[in-house]
Every structure is written in structure tokens, then in C-alpha cells.
User: Fold these one by one.
Assistant:
Number 1:
Amino acid sequence: MRLLAAVAVLVFAATSAFADAPEVGDKAPEFKLQGSDGEEYALSDFAGKKMVVLAWFPKAFTRGCTAECKNMKENGEAIKAYDVAYFTASVDDAKTNAEFAKSLSLDFPILSDPSKEVDAAYGVVHEGRPVPERWTYYIGPDGMVKAVDKQVNTKDAANEIATQLELLGVEKK
């Protein structure tokens, strides 16, 4: 009986950790973060203009994050066919993300949130998880969450993003 109670507590804790994560139809939390290119980006910069794709990853210079970012660069034409702004994001500081982006010759910015405030607002950093979940948010020009991918394949991230943009009916350039 104790084991069953312990399992129930763990299941409740795991599901409540995601309770604050924005879901489809919710207003996306505002952000204003420094990019690896030295520019500052805010969600409000794109309001009424274009969809924003925000792909959170756990940590720069790690195997999975390197694979995801390399895939997004090497197959970026699939994403660039759509009229969107797209970013990866992590809790690494701006200097680390700039070095990581340079090491991979990335052609898109990595956003830095070392305070973890924005990460927490998106639910990707939560109790028991000091680095972000590998989740991708699709935010419409109206500021509403249109889709959330919580099953990102690091080796096919660009095509997954392009497929989701197609499904959402995002205009091509």
C-alpha cells in the first residue's frame, strides 16, 4: 500500500510540474532575451507580423543539443520556406550560446535565459528539472500558442518544424 501511495505522489508531482506550461490556445508568455548574434528579441516584436517558433534545448555543447542545432542549420531551408521567426533557446548565458552558435556556424539565433524566468513561464524548467525540456512552441502572430511539440527528434528537428508549420497553415514566402 505504501508503494502505491508513493507512486501516486510521484505521478501527481510529475503532472503538476507541467501544470503551468502554456498549452494550445493559451496566451504565450512574453519574452525579451539576448540572442547569440548579440541582438535582443522579444515576442512582442513579431506581434501581428509572423509566427514565432521557439525550440527549447537543455544545454549548449551537449550531444543532443548539438544534433538538433546542426539539423536545423543543415536543413534550415525547410523552415525558411515559411514566413516565421525561429529560435532555439536555453538557460546558458549569452556568451556560451554565442560560442556554441559560432562553433556550429548557425544561421539562426540561440536565445539565452540564464535567470530561468522565461523558461519557467513556458514550463520547460520546473521543480526537479534545472535545464529546459526539449520542447518546441509555435506562437501565432496573435500571441497565442498554436502548437507544442514535446517529442522533438534532434536528428530531424528542421523537418518536424516545417511539417508542423504546414499543418498550421503558415504562409510560405
Number 2:
Amino acid sequence: MTLEILTPDKTIYEGEATSVTLPGTLGFFEILNHHAPIISTLEDGKLTVRGGSAGKEEVYFIKGGVVEASNNKVVVLAEGITHK
């Protein structure tokens, strides 16, 4: 699937991923390839990307936001972010 992680001022990540784990309002959840369409709010917490271009795991810490997944494309709009 294609993943984009964006903040108001820049693109943090853009590329392929096999899964992304996100801090949802009601707890952590994971989006995999061919996930059903979803829009969800996000809380402050750890966002984990697996299977990116290097085939490894990348961890980011976000400060709230929203995520949309549709047609094998996931877009994360975060208010703020730091890379671990």
C-alpha cells in the first residue's frame, strides 16, 4: 500500500508500506494492505511503519491528527511529529 505522513509544514514519509500501526482515539489499531476504507482521529502516541522501502520498521511519535485509508492508499495528517 502507499503511505503518506504529512504535517502542516512538510511531508514526513511517502512510499510503500505493508502495515502501519496508529494511536487511535479508542486505542492502537493497524492498517494492512487492502484495508477497508476508514477515517479516524488520532491521539498523541507512537506510529509504526513496517515494510517501507528498506523493508524495516520505522517509528514516529505524533501529536494528534487524522488518518484516511481508501483504495490501498493511507494518508496520515499529524499536527506534529518526531522521528525516533
